[in-house]
């Protein structure tokens, strides 16, 4: 899911790779350093946390407050099946292949 990240004085476009109630796994061209505090924004949702792991172009943050997964998924227009797997929000988007898994 594409989002914006503020680290220091600037914003950059990054991707959420994985999410839990306590943190995020993210992918970026330029990753912040361990211990940096960052803010992730998607539409009106803001998640703040500390960088706890980095590897190549991926990094993980531990959120300062629990992440409301329902709100995050609703803002991303991603539906969740009864078995917990994700479904694509619209036909023909990059997530279409998940429907047949």
Automatic annotation (TrEMBL):
Q: Where is the PilZ domain?
A: 2-71
Which Pfam families does the record match to this protein? PilZ (PF07238)
Q: What is this protein called?
A: PilZ domain-containing protein
